[in-house]
Amino acid sequence: MTKIAPSILAADFSKLGAEIADVEQGGADYIHVDVMDGHFVPNITIGPLIVEAVRPHTSLPLDVHLMIENPDQYIPQFRDAGADIISVHVEACPHLHRTVHLIKETGAKAGVVLNPHTPVSMIEHVINDVDLVLLMTVNPGFGGQSFIDAVLPKISRVRQMAEKLGLEIDIEVDGGVKTATAKKCADAGANVLVAGSSVFGQADRKKALEDLRTSL
Ligand code: DX5
Ligand code: ZN
C-alpha cells in the first residue's frame, strides 16, 4: 500500500504538536521533517531541537530529510532526538557508503536522496545497504514548487534495480506531489509520497489525505 508522509514544512510551526496530531488522526503514515542548512540548499529550517520537541506528539515514524552539508556531524544528534529514518543527499556525501553505515549504526533506517538531475547510477553500489531511496521531484529548498516530470523514469529505474536485487526498500518521492501527480509516481514504482502543501496547506487534512489516496 502506498504510504503518505506529510511534510511539516507546510505546517503551522506555532502549534506543531497539534498539527502533527491532526495528520496522524487523518491517516498519515510517516511524518516528513525537512532539515535545511542554508548551504546545501538556499533556505534554513530546523534542527534536532524541533525533532526532539515533536517526538512525544506522534507514534508515527519521523522521516528526517537532511538537506545539509557534512551530515555525518549531525546524524547522531538527529537519532538521539527521535528520528526513525534519516536520509542524506548523494550530492552532499563524498563518502556515501560510510555515511549510510553511520546512520545504520545509530539504529535508524538509512535513506539516500537524489536531486532531480542526479543519475540513478550514483546509488548503484550502495542500494543493497539502504532502507529507502528518495527521489526529489523538485529542486530542494522550498515547498510549493512544481513537479518535475523528467524524474518519473528514474522512479521506474530504482524500482527495477530493487526488484532485480530482491530488495524490499521504500521508494519515496518528494516535491510537488498532489492529486494531479501522485498516481504518476505510484504507477512508476514509488510507495512513499511526501506531501507538503497538498496536506498541511489544506484546511481539512483528513480530506486532503483521502483525496491523495483516492487519486492513486
Ligand atoms: C523540498 C522539501 C519537501 C517539501 C515538499 O525541498 O524536501 O519535502 O516540503 O513540499 P511540497 O509538497 O509543497 O512540494
Ligand atoms: Zn523533503
TrEMBL record:
The active site is at 34 (proton acceptor), 174 (proton donor). A divalent metal cation binds at residues 32, 34, 65, 174. Pathway: Carbohydrate degradation. InterPro entries: Aldolase_TIM, Ribul_P_3_epim, Ribul_P_3_epim-like, RibuloseP-bd_barrel. Gene3D superfamilies: Aldolase class I. It holds the Pfam family Ribul_P_3_epim. One of its GO terms (biological process) is pentose catabolic process. GO terms for cellular component: cytoplasm. Its cofactor is Fe(2+); Mn(2+); Zn(2+); Co(2+). Its EC number is 5.1.3.1. Substrate binds at residues 7, 65, 141-144, 174-176, 196-197. It catalyses: D-ribulose 5-phosphate = D-xylulose 5-phosphate. Keywords: Carbohydrate metabolism, Cobalt, Isomerase, Manganese, Metal-binding, Zinc. Binds 1 divalent metal cation per subunit. One of its GO terms (molecular function) is D-ribulose-phosphate 3-epimerase activity. Catalyzes the reversible epimerization of D-ribulose 5-phosphate to D-xylulose 5-phosphate. Belongs to the ribulose-phosphate 3-epimerase family. NCBIfam families: PRK05581.1-4, rpe. This is Ribulose-phosphate 3-epimerase. The gene is rpe.
